[in-house]
Amino acid sequence: MGTNITFKRPDGKDATGYLANAARGNAPGVVVIQEWWGLSENIKGLVDRFAVAGFDALAPDLYDGVVVPYHDADAAGKEMNSLNFIEATEQNVRGAVQYLKRNGAKVGLTGFCMGGAVTIIGAAKIPELTAGVAFYGIPPEQAAKPADVKIPLQGHFANKDDWCTPAAVDAFEKAMKAAGKDFEAFRYDADHAFVNEERAAVHDRQAAELAWGRATDFFKKHLG
Asked: Which SUPFAM superfamilies match (predicted)?
């Protein structure tokens, strides 16, 4: 359904990504950020699904074409740890937001796992954003403090998550509320990455569909 495109970062360099457009014109935009595996078929499928739901959706490729097989967590960790999160957010992700906003549309940001952390960094650092939805990812405070978040934010988290742990989620939610931020968190009795349909060991269809409905409703409310 979608297509690979090249777009400009704020610094003028080229970036690549996967774009799917809604059937209607002047649709709001959603930028979708990959898991630590890269711009996988699962992420492309979510971009297509956002387009069907009425959004122009774009997933920037933060790994420049590298997609790690699901069985190789060591390689995925190596890719993620070599990524400059701040530069990726302020250049590739912001460039994708600007691309979708070029016709004056409101744009939201969402991401999964590593992309959830990038979503929260973007919520603090990308001025063109209107709303954000983070799935099971929280950045370290040196990357983005809750007090720096500038847009309404929704979060989806797994109770059986040993990476983005329930304790980390509780602390983040408490800090967001203390800072007076517009934040709602949903918790699911599921594993980390429960939205990923390609990973049968962790995918939870019921939780994934519930989270999807909440996320798209949130974007429709804030983006139009």
From this structure: alpha/beta-Hydrolases
Which residues contact residue 131 at a Cβ distance below 8 angstroms, ignoring those fewer than 6 apart? 106, 108, 109, 151, 152, 153, 154, 218, 219, 222, 223
| CA separation for the pair 170, 146 (Å, rounded) | 12
Residue 78: both structure tokens together: 């190596």
CATH of the domain at 218: 3.40.50.1820
Q: Distance (Å, rounded) from C-alpha 66 to C-alpha 145?
A: 29
* Count of the separate structural domains present in the chain: 1
Instruction: Give per-residue pLDDT as tens, 60-119.
Output: 999 999 999 999 999 999 999 999 999 999 999 999 999 999 889 999 999 999 999 999
- The kind and range of the H/E element at 118 are helix 114-125
